[in-house]
Amino acid sequence: MIRFKIKELIAEKEFKERRKITLQEVADSAGVKRTTLSKMMNPSYQYSTTTKAIDSLCQYFSCKVDDIIEYVEE
C-alpha cells in the first residue's frame, strides 16, 4: 500500500517555522487542491494522484519524492 506522509511534512515545517500551517495554505502555495491533499492524508482512502501534484509538493516542502510517499506492506 502507498502511504502519503503529508501530515508529517506539515508538522516538520510547522516546527521549523514555529507557526501553524493550514492545509489550505499548503494547497494554495503548492498549487494542489485542498481536497486532493485531504484524500492523500486519509489512510483508509486509496487515493491515486498525479506526478505533477507530487512534484509541486516536493517543491513546496523542499524534499524528495520518498519524503512524501512510502510503500507499506499490508
Write a structural description.
The chain contains 5 helices and 2 strands. It has helices spanning 6-17, 23-30, 34-41, 51-61, 65-68, and strands spanning 2-4, 69-71. The protein has a two-stranded antiparallel ribbon with strand order 1-2. The longest helix has 12 residues, at 6-17. The model has no long low-confidence stretch (mean pLDDT 93).
What level of helicity do the residues show? 55-70%
Shape: globular
Give the ordered list of helices and strands. EHHHHHE
Distance between the termini: 6 Å
Number of strands: 2
Overall pLDDT metric: 93
Structural class given helices, strands, pairing?
mainly alpha
Strand order of the largest sheet: 1-2
Low-confidence stretches: none
Strand content: 5-15%
Kindly provide the radius of gyration, computed on alpha-carbon positions and rounded to a whole number of angstroms.
12 Å
Largest sheet: 2 strands, antiparallel
Continuous helix count: 5
Quick rundown:
By secondary structure, the chain is mostly helical. The chain is 58% helix and 8% strand.
